Hints:
The protein is mainly beta. Helices cover 5% and strands 41% of the residues. The chain has two helices and twelve strands. A six-stranded antiparallel β-barrel has the order 1-2-11-10-7-12. The protein starts with a strand and ends with a strand.
Amino acid sequence: MIQGIIGKKIGITRVFQENGQAVAVTAIEAGPCFVTQIKSAGKEGYNAVQLGFREAKKLSSSEKGHLKGIRQLSFLREFRVDDVSSIKRGEPVDVSFLRPGDLVNISGISKGRGFAGVVKRHHFAGGPKTHGQSDRHRAPGSIGGGTFPGRVFKGMRMAGHMGSRKVTIGNLKVIEVEPARDLLLVSGAVPGARGGLLIINRA
Length: 203
């Protein structure tokens, strides 16, 4: 059975549970997805299915050939499965494999923040604000030695491009599932902006 689905972030709201507690949730348009390719251990070396999401407005000739005989879909992502014998190409996949209380891992592309300094990007404290320090408030400080090692080590936390990278948040609790509306509500925040693509896997 496929334990994952592709979705789109709708936004953040809150729901009231039976005990009256308000829970912040993220609403996700989860599916419907369609199986576009099946990979088996005998041929590709591992078992997986490729799912497609959202109707495409325009495709290249190679993409049309890959999706021949099924729906023309924009986004294709791969999910590992244990057994592919019962899965057929073109069959729909919805969010009904999840139940309230299940835990999911959600991946997405984080919001882009452009070029950011070390205080915003890495939460540095910055330099002293007094004692003659006039321009060191948000500076990184020393980034290495002098004669030894005579260079800056790789991976040094410095200013640079922030965001626009893949982020995965694990063990988010499913609050509500509505397969008829392709709606999934999970507790807390998920990566990315409204309308961003999300990959949802059972934890």
